[in-house]
Amino acid sequence: MSEDSLIYKLALSMVKRVTPDTVRHLYECGLTAEDFFTMTTPALSDALNLRNNQRFEQMERDEALFAARQEMKNMQAHGIRGYFLMDPDYPTRLFAVDDAPIFLYQLGETHLDSRHVVSVVGTRKPTPYGTGFAQSLVSGLATYFPDLTVVSGLAYGIDAAAHKAALDAEVATVAVVAHGLNMIYPAAHRDFARKIIHQGGALLSEYPFGTNPYRQRFLERNRIIAGLSDVTVVAESDIKGGAMSTANTAFSYSRDVMALPGRISDPLSNGCNYLIRKEKAHIITCVADLIELIGWQPLDLKIDTTQRNLFPELEGEPKLIYEALRYEREPLQVDRLHQITLIPVARLMSTLGEMEFDGIVIRHPGNRYSIS
Question: Which residue range forms the structural domain that includes residue 186?
Answer without folding.
Answer: 117-294
